Amino acid sequence: MEKNGNLVLPQKFSSFSSSAREEKLRESDRNLSLGNIKIEPFEKKELDLAKNQIKEEDEEGENGDEETNVENASHGEDSNPPAENEPDFETLSEEVDQFLASLTDPEKSDEVPEIPESVIDKFLDVVEKEVKKYENGDERWVQEHDDLPLLPAIGRVLHLSTETEKFCADLKYAHAMNRAGGILHLSMALLEEEFYLLLLEDPHVDSHRAISFGRNQEPDRCVLPHTSTEEEGESNESSLPYPSEIIERLQEIATTMISAGYTAECCQIFSIARRNAFESSLLSLGFERPSIDDLVRMAWEPLEGEIATWIKVFKHAMKKGFPLERDLANKVFNNNKSISSEFFQNLVRESVLHLLNFPEAMFMTKCSAEKLFKMLDIYETLKDSEIVIESFFPEEGLKGEEEDPTVSYNLDLKSEVASVRSRIGESARAIFCDLERSIKADNAKTPVPGGAVHPLTRYVMNYLKYACEYKNTLEEIFREHHKTSCDDDEKPDKGNNNNNSENPFAAQLVEVMDLLNSNLDMKSKLYKDLSLSYIFLMNNGRYITQKIKGSEETCALLGETWTRNRSADVRNYHKNYQRETWSRVLTCLRNDGLMVKGSVQKPVLKERFKSFNSMFEEIHRAQSTWVVSDEQLKSELRVSIQAVVVQAYRSFKGRFEQHFSAGRQTEKYIKYSVEDLERLVDELFEGTPASIIKRR
Questions:
Q1: DSSP letters for 369-388
Q2: pTM of the predicted structure, to 2 decimals
Q3: Which terminus of the chain, N or C, has fewer Cβ atoms within 10 Å?
Q4: In sequence order, which residues have a C-beta less than 8 Å from that of residue 144 and are 6 or more positions away?
Q5: Cα–Cα dist 177/117, whole Å
Q6: How far is residue 677's CA from residue 693's CA, in Å, rounded to a whole number?
Q7: Which tens digit of pLDDT belongs to each residue from 246-273?
Q8: SS (H, E, C) 10-36
Q9: Helices and strands (H and E) in the chain: how many
Q10: Which of 123, 242, 133 is nearest to 180 (CA)?
């Protein structure tokens, strides 16, 4: 085609403006938004302008054809043959293929082959008519229902456009090149639209979005539902979101568009559609990305549910979402690995940065003890993701390609994930260390009734039990942040654990236990009855040792020496209780002072029995209301009392009972049988008022 005597080559344009759309993507990336992106109205206007330009070129071509026909008629040439003699499209395609083969024949590289103008014009007319059939959008292009194989035909048009350019100095070749170029532009608009519509047919995207994520969690907010090993194995496998026939068609369209020089448009459409699909998959799990301000101000109860949902979403993205997108991109762009790799890495980078906003908000919230376990869950989730992200970003280009920005971006993402994980770990360590201050601050002056286990003991030991279930994680955190002191005061090395210097978390655990023991010693002094203070220390000591023995992690961290020493402390409390409570009772059952010159001093004997009865009743009345919740400890106490007191009473009564006359005198001084004492001892430490004592 010539204008003003100059040859005009066809210019590439697209319904998707490359520069404008790339700018929109960059703006989207800057805003860290994966929201639904739609084709803007101005892009449709560009499509109309493109069509008008093609129409003008077609009209010019038609005018040229008319002039040629007139000229041919004036020279007496025959007109076109009748329609019924027209070759079919398959024949036209074969002749076009033969012509294209002649253009690429190396033996004829110096010659300009004769161009079959009539065949090419008819071939292009048929293709143009087929493309325009779907142009207005009234009819959807379905490849299976094509009157002719359109994609291969568009491929021939592409080859015509590129191959005839070599001989564009020839006016006939220039005309064929311009005509093919115009139809190619129109075809690309159709392929772009079809490519986008096919990508929207993702059956895995749930259209029902949750109103607010985390609102419909199970009542137990702390623990995510456990997935079986089989389910976890399945979650690691990605299944493509489209049927094989759609993937094959996407692949063919992508290959054609890229071959035609429409790489930017093809990649842009694919990126938009799959980002929207990925966003929908997160929404289907209940994730709607609340703002950082909302998270910081949120109460703990709803926030706990939000954390559980975030963990579920993040694990889904790593184990299933990202692998699915990688596999799909590799399938669609199977002949262009660099394109699929760039798309996938961009998707991972942007999505992960969005998801990291959530844990970043967590370490901006106020530290409190109940947040520790969720912080550790987040920490472990991020740590697990680092290995997965490493596999997404192989460092193949690091050597000799230091200037490659993609490599730099990938390293930045890995560093960002590690940085957020480190800050979450720092927050978790601060929360755990705050347990010390909580113990020190518990200085209530009211003793626990009955010497029962103190609520502080229950809270601390249960807290430590669950914390030690994260033993490996906390050890890693404390080693990483070992230089940060839990308290401003210097802490002496108590040497409670040989591994303390090598294991900062174990040292911190021992410090917490020592603080708890000191606090309990202080609270034991609130009891006016020294025997009850020993019961209190026994109860709490036994509770502590049982909790430690019930947790392999805690026992391993504290060490066998510490555990044995604590058990020895409980035994000492037991001995002290017996001595303080029953030593005075046992003095009534001694033989000292009862015999004078071989005869029993009956008044002294009567006083001994009276004193024993009085003391025992007083102890029974008081200690039946005391509490020993550990059944084994309760049994040990009762057995020891019976072994010492009841046995002494049995011996004393058997020796001196005959010195009382039968009847009222015996009942007055010897009020209890041995069986009575055994029954009354079994009523101790039940936490109930004293029972009515009856003589047998």
A1: GGGHHHHHHHHHHHHHHHHH
A2: 0.74
A3: C
A4: none
A5: 11
A6: 10
A7: 999 999 999 999 988 899 999 999 999 9
A8: CCCCCCCCHHHHHHHHHHHHHCCCCCC
A9: 27, 4
A10: 123
Question: Under 8 Å CB-to-CB from 348, ≥6 apart: which residues?
Answer: 322, 389, 392, 393, 413
- Strand (E) or helix (H) holding 607: helix 602-623
Instruction: State the CB neighbour count (10 A cutoff) for residue 138.
Output: 7
List phi, psi (to 5°) of 595: -105, 125
Residue spans of alpha helices (H) in 501-644: 504-524, 530-549, 552-558, 560-587, 602-623, 631-641
- In one-letter notation, the amino acid at residue 515 is L
Find the helix or strand (DSSP H, E) in which 596 lies: strand 595-596
Residues facing residue 600 across a β-bridge: 595
Convert the pLDDT of each residue in 458-491 to its tens digit.
999 999 999 999 999 999 999 998 765 565 444 5
SS3 percent helix, strand, coil of the chain, rounded to 5, is: 70, 0, 30
First to last CA, the chain: 129
Integer-rounded Cα radius of gyration of the chain: 45
Beta strands in 5-133 (DSSP E): 6-7
Contacts of 141 (CB under 8 A, 6+ apart): 134, 150, 190, 194
pLDDT of the residue at 582? 95
pLDDT at 118: 77
- For range 356-362, the mean pLDDT: 92
Instruction: Name the residue type at position 128.
Output: E
Residue 429, Ramachandran bin (φ over 0: left; ψ between -120 and 50: alpha; else beta): alpha
CA separation for the pair 521, 507 (Å, rounded): 21
For residue 627, the SS3 value is strand
pLDDT digits (tens, 9 = 90+) for 387-440: 999 888 876 544 444 455 555 666 788 899 999 999 999 999 999 999 999 999
C-alpha 606/C-alpha 602 separation (Å) is 6
Q: Which residue's structure tokens are 């559609």? A: 273
Q: Per-residue pLDDT for 590 more than 80?
A: yes
What are the tens digits of pLDDT across the range 274-303?
A: 999 999 988 888 888 888 888 888 998 999
**Predicted confidence (pLDDT) at residue 603 exceeds the cutoff of 60:** yes
- Residue 36 in tokens: 């639904």
The single residue listed with the structure tokens 């007139």 is 70
Cross-strand partners of 599: 596
pLDDT at 31: 39
Q: pLDDT per residue over 94-112, tens digit each?
A: 777 777 777 776 666 566 7
Q: What SS3 state is found at 207?
A: coil
